[in-house]
Amino acid sequence: MPSGFRSFTAPVVVAGLAWLALMSAPTAAAQEVADASCPGPPNSNVSAGTPATTEFAQPFTALNTGELTRAQVLITKGSGSTGDYVLSINTVDGSDLPTTTVLASTTIPNTTVPEGETVLVGSFAAPANVVSGQRYALVVSRPGGTNLFLRIRGDNPCSGQLYARLIPDPFSLVSDGVDMLFTVSVTPPAPVTPPPPAAAGTTSQRAAALAKCKKMKKKSKAKRKKCKKKANALPV
């Protein structure tokens, strides 16, 4: 475990309304879908020191291809604590270790986060493009803040494990079997709607125009040729 932060076991507390909000909060957009997650209830905490120069990261596998538009993390905000929160989506290396390469980032002002156990919600104005089946990392930090408490599970419930780093050091494993409680949402690309098939018995624009040209028997050859040229330029 990297120095500079601490973890401790607390009595198991079902995250009541806070965790319900994490799992069922209204989507930010009609097309947004719930993606990777690690559900509660929590049974421990992990915290960064003061100032909070630690970043916590949890690798996950994207379930959908599209834009990762939102992330939520279960935290505890201490009374009177200061510092805005930052959520980011980072890459992972070939060993599933989170990297410092940021694909998307958003800042949640401290004044908008209630004290006590709460769900930290961040929407990405410039989302990360993710691919189904690929691995990424959700990173939580509170740069310069007085503290950062994450609610976690220590019974290895989810894919991936919790990592931490003291800036500017690289990430390292917090402890075997420890997971951040989170969920991310992805907005898949809009489906391409094919044009409706032509109704039976209808004629295309080109065919209709060519039919008119055939009726121009009394017109000059040049005019008929010009008519056909215009007709052939129309949609089939």
Q: How would you characterize the overall build of this protein?
A:
The chain is mainly beta and 236 residues long. It has 2 domains: 5-187, Jelly Rolls (Sandwich); 203-236. The chain contains 3 helices and 14 strands. Strands 1, 2, 3, 5, 8, 10, 13 and 14 form an 8-stranded antiparallel sheet that branches. The protein has a 6-stranded antiparallel sheet with strand order 7-6-9-4-11-12, with no helix packed on it. The longest helix has 12 residues, at 221-232. It starts with a strand and ends with a helix.
What's a quick, concise take on this entry?
With 236 residues, the protein is mainly beta. The chain contains three helices and 14 strands.
Distance between the termini: 68 Å
**Mean pLDDT rating:** 84
> Helical amount among residues, as a percent range?
10-25%
Count of domains: 2
Contiguous helical run count: 3
Strand content: 35-45%
Secondary-structure-based class equals mainly beta
Which sequence of SSEs, written as H and E, runs from N to C? EHEEEEEEEEEEEEEHH
**Low-confidence segments, ≥5 residues, pLDDT <50?**
7-21, 23-29
- The CATH topology annotation of the largest domain reads as Jelly Rolls
Overall outline: elongated
> What Rg is obtained from the alpha carbons, in whole angstroms?
28 Å
The CATH first-level class of the largest domain comes to Mainly Beta
The count of β-strands is: 14
Give the CATH architecture of the largest domain: Sandwich
- Tell me the major beta sheet: 8 strands, antiparallel
